[in-house]
Structures are given as C-alpha cells and as structure tokens.
Design brief:
Elements (H helix, E strand, L loop, with lengths): L3 H26 L3 H16 L3 E7 L5 E8 L4 E4 L25 H8 L3 E3 L11 H10 L6 E7 L5 E8 L1 E2 L5 E2 L3 H35 L1
Antiparallel strand pairs: 1-2, 1-6, 2-3, 4-5, 5-6, 7-8
Amino acid sequence: MINMDALNRIKFLEDRLHRLSEIGMALSTEKDTDRLFEMILEEAKHITKADGRTLYSMNEEGDLSFEILRNDSMNTIMGGTSGVEIPYYPVHLWLDDQTPNQKNVSAYVALTGKTVNIKDAYEEEGYDFEGTINFDKKNGYRSKSFLTVPLKNHENEIIGVMQLINARNDNGDVIPFNEEMEEQVESLASQGAVALTNKRLVEELKNYLKRSLS
C-alpha cells in the first residue's frame, strides 16, 4: 500500500522544485535591481510566511546597507521600489581595524558566510539583540524567530545578507524556522546572489564599453 504521507511529500518537493525553477528564471531576466531584491524577499515570505524581511547589500565601504525592509503586521514598506527611504545606518562589520562585529547577527553572517537560525532572540546569548528588544518595546512588537542567510556570488564572496523574522504557521502563530525552510531560503539566496552578480557584471561591461568608445 502506498504511503499517503510519502506521496504528499513527493508532491510537495516536486512543486518546490518547479517553483524554484520559475523564480530562478524570473530572477535571471529581471533588469531592475530593486525589483530583483523584492522578488527574493517575496519568495522567502512564500516559503516561511515570515512577518519581517530585510535585505542588505555589501557597500563599497564593506558594510551592510539596507536595501529592502518589510514587516507585514507593522505595515512597514521601505526601500526598493516603494520610494520610502530606510532611515537606518549601515551595519558595520568591524568595530575597529582588528575587531569583527560578531555580536550583530547580520554582521556575523556577512563575516563568516554561515547561516544563523535563532528560535527566540530574547533567549539568545550569543548575539546582541538589545536594539531589537528596545525597538519592540517602543513599537509593541515581539521579534522572536530569526533566520539570517548570506548571499554569495559565484566566487563565494559575500555580496549581501537576507534576514527573516518571525516565521508563521497556517494559523498565523509565530514559529521557529525549521530545517526545511532554512534549506529552501539558502537555495533562494544562492539564486538571487547569482542573478544580482550577473546583472552587475553586465552593467560593468556596458560602462566599460561606453568609456572605451567615448
């Protein structure tokens, strides 16, 4: 007798592969960087139902600049195509010339290239969430589960970081990011990073040709 759970699992994986293929094609053809960033975060929301979503890019100074900031329950829409400027300073990866900023989870992920999955920020001792807790108190929010993933280009260089907050189940309850979510978001981040890198390379080539011909 065929196990229905196994069949459902196979169907889920087939659908997931198909969707990843579709998003990969869409990312590779998207010409606008802001839209590309937003597509990555929207797909991450589809996978995890995350309430909060932030995408950072590595700037020329080697810090993480906010590109897109979304939070559904707080109705926050900043950066990207929204036209609303994000009023936060970049995240510094180094506290000084010799001290890495490893207490900030986004900075740590950018420095190490490792994904960090946190069940409850308020109970986490490895990172400094004081700013998050203060923000929550001021805004009546509760940041709990965090998934922070690096965006790596084809040369394994970190070009950005994606951070998701408060995964939710079908009832809207906040849950931890499970292993399956983590793997799928990492795959999405990889696709997004490749698409973004390819777009930047094409832009650099166009600019080089313009300078050469002028």
